[in-house]
């Protein structure tokens, strides 16, 4: 089993590095792309609810203080995949797209009393789109055809990923602190091509590329207060450091003569570009008798002051430089819960977990001077215990998620996603007696 887990982890790492993006959204052409969820399988059943949860048998990356609660006898390994179908609606024109992606690979175990560690690989953002539009040309030079058309083709791929190592420590009963340190990397590729059916007009292409190699730091804390013998409240706090990623994005403008196929290329480079925002999170979780857990999370990402490179032409002079006003602060509110009759019961259905959650999030993007699409989402999930002669501690987490994104005058998106996460819980550190 240990060899299988190690092989799955390495395979997940390889696939994450080379995999296609986990999105088809045209909104991923802006900023750092479509922001990915860092929730693992059990969190996704509650639509990403995480800050107040400290489970002994699950990996909760979103608050590293939770690692301190990991069972002392276990090695927990968690891997998840997703399958999604998205419907795009623009002025009554509807298109469907689907994809699948390996979402995350994570592991956790206890190293000392009250100290747990975790490591794994997670997505940060995804870029993936390909669309075009064709229109008639209203005014052309006299040499052109009266029925000439022009087409704009847009495509992009890539995204940012992170490998992390984290630790959680509980110095006093009910008080825990934690931190994640991540290596953040990835490539963002975007292009737009303007072509004309008339052979007298040049083809113009703009290619945007950037490589990111940086770091990410996340801090967390949890404070648990017993109310009585059957009830307790946990306050969870999280903070992510915002900083410049030091990337050097490049923009290449290629003008190709349609008759001679001769190209002229102009390149622009911006130094010390791209930033990740400061992120603040707070959550409250109520635990009733270890059966019903209900919580609420609030997250704010400070994007509004972050600059982003943009191609600008003023008085016939073109430049590629950092500009303001491309982003806005993002706020997200999540409510959800988990119910299980009790893990100490032997019955299969008694050990099932039933989860649900809803979220509302404002955008971090500004598109054509207005805020991007707001997001409303909901999920329902189950945790299915794996019970056999070899292992009765592992769990299969399955959830269905619906995400709606819309804004006035912009494309509407409806996404239906299936998340599947498999949590191996192995008793690697148990001491056995021989008689």
UniProtKB/TrEMBL annotation:
Keywords: Signal
Signal peptide span: 1-19
Protein name per Swiss-Prot or TrEMBL: Outer membrane protein
């Amino acid at each position: 089993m240990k060899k299988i887990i190690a092989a799955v982890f390495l395979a997940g790492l390889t696939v994450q590095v080379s995999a296609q993006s986990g999105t088809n959204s045209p909104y991923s052409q802006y900023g750092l792309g479509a922001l990915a969820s860092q929730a693992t399988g059990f969190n996704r059943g509650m639509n990403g609810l995480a800050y107040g949860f400290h489970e002994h048998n699950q990996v909760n990356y979103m608050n590293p203080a939770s690692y301190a609660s990991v069972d002392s006898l276990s090695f927990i390994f968690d891997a998840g995949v997703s399958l999604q179908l998205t419907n795009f609606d623009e002025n009554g024109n509807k298109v469907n797209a689907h994809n699948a992606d390996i979402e995350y690979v994570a592991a956790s175990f206890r190293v000392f009393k009250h100290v747990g560690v975790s490591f794994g690989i997670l997505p940060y953002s995804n870029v993936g789109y390909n669309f075009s539009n064709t229109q008639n040309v209203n005014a052309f030079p006299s040499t052109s055809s009266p029925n000439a058309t022009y087409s704009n083709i847009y495509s992009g791929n890539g995204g940012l990923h992170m490998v992390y190592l984290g630790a959680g420590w509980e110095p006093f009963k009910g008080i825990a602190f934690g931190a994640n340190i991540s290596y953040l990397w990835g490539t963002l590729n975007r292009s737009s091509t303007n072509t004309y059916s008339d052979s007298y007009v040049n083809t113009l292409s703009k290619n945007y590329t950037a490589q990111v190699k940086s770091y990410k730091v996340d801090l967390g804390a949890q404070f648990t207060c017993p109310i009585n013998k059957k009830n307790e409240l946990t306050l969870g706090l999280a903070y992510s450091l915002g900083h410049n990623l030091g990337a050097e994005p490049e923009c290449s403008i290629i003008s190709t003569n349609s008759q001679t196929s001769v190209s002229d290329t102009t390149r622009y480079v911006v130094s010390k570009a791209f930033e990740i925002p400061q992120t603040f999170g707070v959550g409250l979780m109520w635990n009733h008798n270890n059966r019903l857990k209900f919580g609420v999370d609030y997250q704010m990402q400070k994007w509004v002051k972050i600059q982003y490179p943009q191609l600008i032409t003023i008085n016939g002079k073109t430049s590629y430089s950092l500009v303001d006003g491309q982003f806005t602060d993002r706020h997200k509110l999540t409510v959800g819960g988990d119910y299980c009759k009790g893990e100490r019961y032997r019955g299969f259905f008694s050990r099932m977990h039933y989860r649900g959650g809803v979220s509302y999030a404002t955008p971090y993007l500004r598109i054509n001077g207005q805020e991007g699409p707001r997001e409303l989402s909901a999920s329902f999930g189950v945790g299915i215990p794996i019970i056999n002669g070899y292992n009765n501690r592992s769990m299969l987490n399955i959830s269905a998620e619906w995400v709606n994104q819309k804004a006035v005058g912009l494309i509407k998106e409806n996404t239906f996603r299936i998340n599947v996460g498999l949590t191996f819980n192995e008793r690697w550190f148990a001491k056995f007696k021989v008689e």
